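#lab-general

N.A. 3:47 PM
ok so I finally got the sequence cleaned up, no stray characters, all 187 residues accounted for. can someone with queue access submit it? mine expired

B.Y. 3:52 PM
send it over

N.A. 3:53 PM
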Amino acid sequence: MQPGVGLEQGMSPDALADGTPQKNLEFKARLGDLATARRHALALGATEGAVLAQVDTYFRAVSGRLKLREINGTVAELIAYDRPEGDAHRWSRYRRVAVGDPAGMKAALSDAMGLRGIVAKTRHLYLWNDCRIHLDEVEQLGTFLEFEVISQGDEAFDRDRMASLMSAFELGEADGILASYSDLRGL
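B.Y. 4:20 PM
back already:
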């Protein structure tokens, strides 16, 4: 196992990205002020995680999306996911697989599937009750906030945790962005 795999997802260092199907509820919004968002996260009781330099390379996929995520230039994982982009709160089903040779994986997938493009960002990670709060500075796009509520198998409970996050950050449904960073970049 590679050290740090899974850390950007809010898991312990020994949590391996093993391809197990997972599900979360997501919300994304533009952020006007990073400092205010940090204060909201800390006031909520979130713990500050790592600052992560992430490079997501997107490939053409037959269904859903496929990206190779390189984290701090030291670890990488392949993430296959599918989610509707039409709602502010979106259920995402995904699989994460640790990658030992990111350059080789990128070359093989580019050759076989075709490259869609690259999204680079600096992610400030906060953790709260099995939820991830991302404060993202995305190259060529600006600053964003993203919530990921890891599903506990009870959608009502998951939605309650999302509602708590929305309230703490003073956000409403209308603040949501209905697209991924790759879509916003036109990839």
